Amino acid sequence: MLKAGDKAPEFTGTDDQGQTVALKDYRGKKVVLYFYPKDNTPGCTQEACDFRDSMADLSQKGVVVLGVSPDSVSSHQKFKAKFSLPFALLSDGDHAIAEAYGAWQEKSMYGRKYMGIVRSTFVIDEEGNIAEVHGKVKVKGHVAGLLKSL
Question: Are the beta carbons of 30 and 123 closer than 8 angstroms?
Fold first, then answer.
């Protein structure tokens, strides 16, 4: 996984509106790029809603939030509408963005091994460098802790 001080990998993806989004579009702004496994699951919903509920504070700090999962644009549209999420969700069906950031890893559940998203958050500074890395994130308290560190 990447570490603080590394150059953030450039990426291009499709957001929940079907628009192309690239990291370079946000140069000059601080970006919180968070990876989550799946729309409409309990932990992912809680994390997204925590970001939503903290958007005023994040915006005040000049932060742009981008959520990334392998879900489709259509799934993201429904998830975003259902929970009134005020930030972009990027569809990473081929997990190229997750792989570039080291968030696509082998996981294990009930003895079965498979590849999937490891819940991770990256803070990217205004120059495109990684300022903070939060790997294997626990949802409870994550956004509140992130706000304190910004």
Answer: yes
